[in-house]
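quick one, two chains, predict together pls
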Amino acid sequence: MATATHTPGTTEQALPDAAGHFGRYGGVFVAETLMAPLAELRQAYDHLRGDADFRAELDWTLKHFVGRPTPLYYAQRWSERIGGARIYLKREDLDHTGAHKINNTVGQALVAKHMGKQRVIAETGAGQHGVASATVAARLGMQCVVYMGEEDTERQKTNVFRMRLLGAEVVPVRSGSRTLKDALNEAMRDWVANIDDTYYIIGTVAGPDPYPRMVRDFHCVIGEETREQMMALEGRLPDALVACVGGGSNAIGLFHPFLGEDSVQMYGVEAGGEGLATGHHGAPLCAGRPGILHGNRTYLMTDEAGQITSTHSISAGLDYPGVGPEHAWLKDSGRVEYLAVDDDEALAAFHDLTRTEGIMPALETAHAVAYAGRLAATMACDQTIVVNLSGRGDKDMDTVAQHSGGME
Amino acid sequence: MSRIASRFDRLREAGRTALIPYITAGDPTPAVTVDLLHGMAASGADLLEVGVPFSDPQSDGPVIQDACQRALAQGVTLRHVLEMVGEFRERDTETPVVLMGYSNPIEAMGIEAFTAAAAAAGVDGVIVVDAPPEEGGELIEALIDQNIDPIFLVAPTTADERLARICTAARGFIYYVSLKGVTGAGTLAHGDIAGKVDSIRAHSNLPVGVGFGIRDAESAALVGKSADAVVVGSAVVSRIAEHGDDPARTQQEVRRFIGSLRAALDGTA
């Protein structure tokens, strides 16, 4: 059996630097009022991440509350039908609440608890991060307010109801484009006004330092488990990793523990929407340019004057004009390849995986599934791909029905 | 000496507090902005703060968010804002103009191109809300090269150590954000303001302006007792929003409001 050695501290894995920069990306681009609470958070997190008791509490919660480790499942029927690489699915859809998002919210909620904060706020697009935040807040007896674009509250009604059942207040955001980016703006405004008692649980690997690295650290359990599971199942590392990228949290969680392994190819799949050429998409890495939004420098969808442009994706969770700064850096360095899958191809992949494997992916996840299918066909049958099956599709029934001719 | 410094010098000699009203450029229409700037200068404004509209103004409350949206709906860009300042300068070479906005429009234009065009237009100071001194290095240098003052915010949460650092980077004046919140929010805690203004003065000889949450003559007068300048934004913008479809009425209301603030600051109200 070939041995693979984990090499922490390689250039890719050592970032960000002390100022929160991934190369030229990342940083702390916020109003002065937030500099102090961010410094407080940085100090708390830097202490807790090295604290054995905190780690033990987090591990216990991941095991008994989230349901980790999640399986690494060989999608045999689907792989054989494609006739190329063997495709494994990392089953984050089996996490409590149905998506990877909860790995981060349990971590941040514990940080909030240790900081003595009684109130947590969150932004949400598809509602998965909002549900995951409301869930951990309920468990810890904290007050929870979730900001959600008005448009998203309409297309994700079930998740709004779930959050309310969990005791959270859901605030529909009517400013700007009334989607995820505006929910983030509104959550930041709430935080500025309530910094003394409030902890802001950002749902992706974006925002000002320390959020991109902290959220990444909490999701790295995905890649770490995958590594162990692949060694046990195949006796070697996977040849390729595939994950969808909105803000990029599930992707970085899978990729990061493998960044030092040159033999592992990585593919981040953005929302191609109606096609990159139409401009109606959510693919800043493929078709955007560097800029500054939500506390960090990263690739953004903006017009020539620097205004943030509206995005489109069949999946609300990928409907975001920015992306985590570490992805921006990994794109420029060439370590990860980023590409886009459009709405139709994602929807087809949703049906394909559902019928072939009995696993219904979230529409976000279906973008990664679609590309993995394409990639597998170009690879040999002794090669392997791991797809991060980041969430389950139950929340998307209405959207799928609407695009696929009803519930019949 | 810069226009900002000489304006504050003259005010100090006269024992007066500076009045700095804010409007968002292009709100309600690009056609009225320059007239409004002249109108405010004529009715008692000492410096003018001009907002650069941005799609995602995270530090602004609903009033200025809406103003940004109205301006953006008409396609107003940073280049247009600089043209407006240039046009204002054709008839007013005395009143300092400070731009206030967010990083991304400047990033998109390019720092060198922006600072050169701003200097040519007659901009005197620039506040970039989401660029603290730690991240603003390149911009700060480029502004200073063009003799434009980089102006920084100090918040109630700013610790002493950071205050020293901000004061080192700052030029023109120090802008103290008087509350924890967004523009136009909340109620002022006047006692805290005086104390914080004093601690800023311990670190800097620059004038101290206070803004965020000053909404009328009364609060302006109260803040004016401890500050060198009071900044009034949302309260001006909401008057523009109210009469936006009638430019003459807008001009009249804004002038009347600026006049009332001026009188309150001068103790002649």
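Chain A touches chain B through 39 residues (CB under 8 Å).
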